[in-house]
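Reviewer 2 asked us to include a model.

Predict the structure of this chain.
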Amino acid sequence: MEAVNLFDLAAHQARWLSVRQAAVAGNIANINTPAYKAVDVEPFEKVLDGSRVAMKATHGQHQHHGVTPASFLLDRSEDPKMLPSENSVVLEDELVKAGEVRRAFELNTAIVKAFHRMIMMTARG
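Predicted model (structure tokens):
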């Protein structure tokens, strides 16, 4: 039987979310700092690229479905928005990021609680 790594994955994502929350809070804290450049962390999907957490076919007739990097094209040609103070922090963008972090924390917690309940139910018989 293979070890269940959902709890490890959830803990890894929670650490990543903490770092992203700190980056967003730092951006908001420096919103009036002249020449401050907004920062963000790399997406969690990129963090997982090097890990062994992935879907794999266990039977030859399984179909492969999923999102490939080519499925989405991100336009990064634009320079970040610059304010007259040469500060690149946009409060609305940071608040959207903060909302994303909050929702991700809530989802992470709900999944761990549900998985824990399932394990406890099977252990009790």
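The radius of gyration is 19 Å. Residues 4 and 11 are 13 Å apart (CA to CA). We have added this to the supplementary material.
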